[in-house]
């Protein structure tokens, strides 16, 4: 009865949770049936136990806050740089010409390959992680932003010119609003990349952070704690995704709602 | 007011260079056109005759390769305002903000632009839709908003680029009658581009018939039907005679190039 009402009121949340619970049940049962070795994949109950222990003693908190800090600073800086740069590249042909080859070359280099160099320059502390996170998110945000500007409908730009409006007015009233959906998907993709950046940087050289926690517990064959780290990243991803959804909704009142 | 020319064009020519072949294409050979103040003049012709191109030259969106355009100077505001074909409203703006946009382009602060735009929403029959977004409007209503945006800047001449081409037949007739009602109220000069003979005859004081390849004027026909015109005028013999006359002009022009592949 109550479940039925929740299912109707917020279908998305209800079935989202249902999916999680279902997977956990299947996982737990197949492990208990002995279909594979528990020590390899762990089980939801073992992960829960590890979580209770580590959160209870507080030992996991520094890892979480460290990773969050690296993510927040690196991602924020990448947005602050990539969005204006993407707008400039999309709007001014000459900025595009003078930067595109350079940026394409940089983009082609796998970020992981740069980590040893970055560590050499910036050390194994916060700075090097922030740089890796920045680089990981930067291109996705910049490329989607500039592509968004370049796909503005010509007829919309014509309207400003037709009524004698300035280029600056066209940028503010036409380019920005029509690019906004692109910027938002850039942010969405970039957030995922930034998270990958956090983990890979912490794997290679760190003494704190969730990536380090996963690496460390993995080397002790403590799969429950490895899984706990992965789950925490997953939870963070879901929370972040929901946050972005709220922001997207706010900005897109003029779009017909396709989902409902 | 009377006796002034709202628009005077002399020897307007438009040449393009085809990007693929590099050959020069004459979109408009040479157009002379006088539009008196307060008149409703239509440019009628098949696609490729340069009628929309001519309109964009008048508006300043395109620069003619030769010739001269004179617009009647007005004390303040723009000389001309364009009503575009379909889907020219900004989807991210409400109807009110779209209608106010022409004024914003002219440097009017947004708040004041909204206040000045509001009466035009009523004039075009969109009462109660000021806060709606374009996707919530039908095609006919979108074109009403499009018209209101052009009217709001209070330009001396309205340039209309096939504004009803994308509407269904019934809505188009309603909009034609509405346009005449609004024209009667707002007392604007109108230069109206269309490829539909009945639309041009019904609306206009004069129909300027154009032909393609190269774009040129082939006839300038004065429509001597009484005003105000109800839609019923379309079923009178006089109306039919005008349609017939223009249809023959276009057929005559088309005949030699029949069977020619269209680009």
Keywords:
heterodimer; A: 260 residues; mainly alpha; MetI-like fold; 2 domains; 0% strand; flat; B: 263 residues; alpha/beta; 6-stranded mixed β-sheet; 35% helix; disordered C terminus
List segments of chain A where confidence is low: pLDDT < 50 over at least 5 consecutive residues: none
Topology of chain B as a string of helices (H) and strands (E):
EEEHEEHHHEHEHEEH
One letter per element, helices H and strands E, the order of chain A comes to HHHHHHHHHHHH
Which structural class best describes the helix and strand composition of chain B? Answer: alpha/beta
Please report which band the strand proportion of chain B falls in: under 5%, 5-15%, 15-25%, 25-35%, 35-45% or over 45%: 15-25%
> Helix count of chain A, per DSSP?
12
Write structural notes for this entry.
The complex is a heterodimer of chains A (260) and B (263). Chain A contains 12 helices and no strands. Chain A is mostly helical and 260 residues long. Chain A has 2 domains: 30 residues, no CATH class; 209 residues, MetI-like fold. The model of chain A has no long low-confidence stretch (mean pLDDT 89). Chain B is α/β, with parallel strands linked by helices. Chain B has one domain: P-loop containing nucleotide triphosphate hydrolases (Rossmann fold, 3-Layer(aba) Sandwich). Chain B has 7 helices and 9 strands. In chain B, the strands form 2 sheets. A 6-stranded mixed beta sheet of chain B has the order 5-6-7-3-8-9, with helices on both faces. In chain B, strands 2-1-4 form a 3-stranded antiparallel beta sheet, covered by helices on one side. In chain B, helix 3 packs across helix 4. The longest helix of chain B is centred in the C-terminal third of the chain and has 18 residues. The radius of gyration of chain B is 19 Å and the shape is globular. The N and C termini of chain B lie far apart (44 Å). The C terminus of chain B is likely disordered. Chains A and B meet through helix 9 and helix 10 of A and helix 2 of B.
